[in-house]
DNA sequence: GTCTATATCGGGATAGAC
DNA sequence: GTCTATCCCGATATAGAC
């Protein structure tokens, strides 16, 4: 196995440079220069640029996911709405602090359009949120936190909104994200139903 | 002025190739080959690859926008909710038919992170939708279609949801978009209020 | 594990003829 | 307005020494 610290530091620097400039505009030479090592040193740890991009993606996917931000055991009938609201806002604020996160995920999204390998992982993340929300809402109903509704659809809506907020924030759009998320949670809690067409 | 038909056909083909493969992976040589012309022919019409990308973006921006899908004069007190629902669904379905649209906009979003020139235009489109929805909702209140609420926030939410649906559909996620959009419109129409924090 | 030096290729862009 | 031929550069990747 290669030296873990060098390996890690390459991933960290790549993450930053890829986010700032994109995959194509970031050459292996630039990464090497930023780390003050030579190009072949990179190729010793990663067999190709694509391998580096792939490993980085694996690391990112490992570090995110529904259960990082929403933990079922923290929820009670009494605090359910408030907790769901604050956990969601906390997630948004956390991602907002890492200015590179949204940018690099946008890059992987672009790759996903051409290579199913990336698309599958991205879809997996989103589906993880939707199934996580579904599970959480089911739990909420079971402990009597709120009346039953179409929880599957509500979970989809929460996933879409939380994903979209991240996107809009990255544009610098100063929308009332707190109010929007709070409203979405309230809608779920009051069991509002959409009219079928 | 250059021959309009050649100019147009370059833009059309570029649109498709850029969407399929991304800007960097699509070379001027590939575009030329696809059109069965030579590279210098392209450079006669567009001074550089970046100029081509920019002109294409201008054309795209010109062809989209709130008022393409939502026209205030079609709305009455009686049909307001139904019309807002169907116009939104129609917009989503239209964009879904052009498989290249979401992909190429994703590319311009990536460019926007590095060059404010693109970011400004993208933000302009989104703000156009938000101000369009605000105007439309204000009109709805003025004709008594529904009670007054925090229309600015509601307009932001509608913008985020409609943008997000397009995104999720492009992943191939089969969510209940019709129900979600209908629910969002209903929430606006019933004047639901988000609790301030 | 890391270096210097180099091979190889493909891309953007242009010169100059027609 | 379009062509053939070419320039030039930067990128990925490797050979081979230490």
Strand and helix layout:
Two copies of one chain form a homodimer.
Chain A: H1 4-21, H2 28-35, H3 39-45, H4 49-63, H5 66-69, H6 80-97, H7 101-114, H8 116-142, H9 151-170, H10 177-189
Helix pairs in contact in A: 1-2, 1-7, 6-9, 6-10, 7-8, 8-9, 9-10
The structure holds a DNA duplex (18 and 18 nucleotides).
Q: Roughly how many Å is the radius of gyration of chain A?
A: 20 Å
Q: List segments of chain A where confidence is low: pLDDT < 50 over at least 5 consecutive residues.
A: none
Strand content of chain A: under 5%
Assembly of the depicted chains:
homodimer
Largest interface, counted with CB-CB under 8 A?
A: A-B, 51 and 52 residues
How many strand units of chain A? 0
What's the CATH class label of the largest domain in chain A? Mainly Alpha
Main pleated sheet of chain A: none
Instruction: List the helices and strands of chain A in order.
Output: HHHHHHHHHH
Measured as a percent range, the helix fraction of chain A is over 70%
How far do the termini of chain A sit from each other? 58 Å
Notable traits:
homodimer, 197 residues, mainly alpha, Arc Repressor Mutant, subunit A, Tetracycline Repressor, domain 2, DNA-binding
